[in-house]
Design brief:
alpha/beta; Carbamate kinase; eight-stranded mixed beta sheet; two-stranded antiparallel ribbon; about 35% helix; binds aspartic acid; binds magnesium ion
Length: about 280
């Protein structure tokens, strides 16, 4: 049976109605015959709120050394809430499901708190749960250090969690659900001629990300490329089966038949060019 990882960002789980829609998208993939692991972000705005609390309680307020390990304890909590809510929602829809925190899998990370890197994801626990027919609902953004502390993976890190899980359980694909329906040739809010790409290579996606296109955390694309995990970027703001549900596939260049010379144009707002004559 094929395994699939579905990742939902903050806007896709921003309230209970959206979490129910996520539940319907997950149920559709289960009905299609996949074993599903779902990775969730915190509800939109939550992580910023948590970060602001750590500023108030921590170093910024008192002129003390920052406690990065305790920062991680606080900011990782947003994803715990979403994972529990989605697992409950799935159960209410009649699907067996349970939540998983980073330390329960475990997602083993280094101790660079606030920007930790994933060292290892032993797949046994997740695979056993998925083989038993349970949907695994995983809190993104968080891992556990070798000495048992919570560590977070940097802002936007749930994308990287999802790719690491997909590689660990040998998923056929990692679907990244977001509030746009794919990767565009340039920012569609600025250029009306922007077109959605049906496929883009990892290399081009990395270039676009480094130039400021914010669809995916750069590290998640690097990891997907290293582990050869195909990604798909698509909108969660649709019901199952509804167009435009196909999104953009990010994959190895070899799998793209008709190569384009230039795939996209990204921009950065905080740069200017001055020419002296
Ligand atoms: N919730 C975290 C953030 O806002 C991680 C993520 O959503 O990817 O940065
Ligand atoms: Mg994100």
């Amino acid at each position: 049976m094929s395994r699939l990882v579905m990742k939902f960002g903050g806007t896709s789980v921003a309230d209970l109605e959206r979490i129910r829609r996520v539940g319907r998208l997950v149920a559709a993939e289960v009905a299609a015959g996949h074993q599903v692991a779902v990775v969730v972000s915190a509800m939109s705005g939550k992580t910023n709120e948590l970060v602001a609390w750590t500023d108030g309680a921590g170093a910024a307020a008192q002129g003390l050394e920052p406690s990065d390990d305790e920062y991680d304890v606080v900011v990782a909590s947003g994803e715990q809430v979403t994972a529990g809510l989605l697992a409950m929602t799935l159960r209410n829809m009649g699907l067996p499901a349970r939540s998983w925190m980073g330390w329960q899998i475990p997602i083993v990370a280094d101790d660079a708190h606030g920007r930790a890197r994933i060292d290892d994801v032993p797949p046994e626990n997740l695979v056993a749960a998925m083989d038993s027919g349970q949907v695994a609902v995983i809190a993104g953004f968080q891992g556990v250090t070798r000495d048992g502390r919570i560590a977070t993976l940097g802002r936007g890190g749930s994308d990287t969690s999802a790719v690491a899980i997909a590689a660990a359980v040998s998923a056929i694909r990692c679907d990244i659900y977001t509030d746009v329906d794919g990767v565009y040739t340039t920012d569609p809010r600025i250029e009306s001629k922007a077109r959605k790409l049906s496929k883009i290579s990892y290399e081009e996606m990395l270039e676009m990300a480094s130039l400021g296109a914010k669809v995916l955390q750069t590290r998640s694309v690097e990891l997907a490329m290293a582990k050869n995990v195909p990604l798909r970027v698509l909108s969660s703001f649709v019901e199952p089966g509804e167009a435009p549900g196909q999104g953009t596939i990010v994959c190895d260049e070899e799998e793209i038949m008709e190569k384009r010379i230039v795939s996209g144009v990204a921009y950065s707002r905080d740069e200017a060019k001055i020419t002296l004559y």
